[in-house]
């Protein structure tokens, strides 16, 4: 369950990063014979090549002025969906309740979206850390979490 929560939290920080790390892991490990269509999609070599490019685009866009807040409903909904997706995929890998893990992933995405929004606002407004630096710090957290979580998946 901790892996689903961690992946969900990553989705709350960067919506495409969690599916990207999971896709890379599944592509390397190969999809099981009982893999769901979502797992097969994530495990495909095409998805494993395309998602990192899209995730990189998200990292760049995050630093641009005028980008909408992560708490704007359409953006937040995308993060929640991403958290639910990775939570469900982790559940299938662990042979656990897909619905339960999807909810854990979505709730973790919501919590991290709200928490990181507050932290980033504090860092940029009160501590006067430039937004681009705060964004790079968040990117580093996502990358570290992604590597650790996928390594723990075995």
Automatic annotation (TrEMBL):
Stretches assigned to the DUF4126 domain: 2-143
Q: Where is the chain membrane-spanning?
A: 98-119
Q: Which UniProt keywords apply?
A: Membrane, Transmembrane, Transmembrane helix
Question: Which InterPro entries does the record match to this protein?
Answer: DUF4126 (IPR025196)
Q: Which domain of life is it from?
A: Bacteria
Report whether Transmembrane shows up as a keyword of the record: yes
Q: Report the protein name in the record.
A: DUF4126 domain-containing protein
Organism (species)? Cystobacter fuscus (strain ATCC 25194 / DSM 2262 / NBRC 100088 / M29)
The lineage, from the top, is: Bacteria, Pseudomonadati, Myxococcota, Myxococcia, Myxococcales
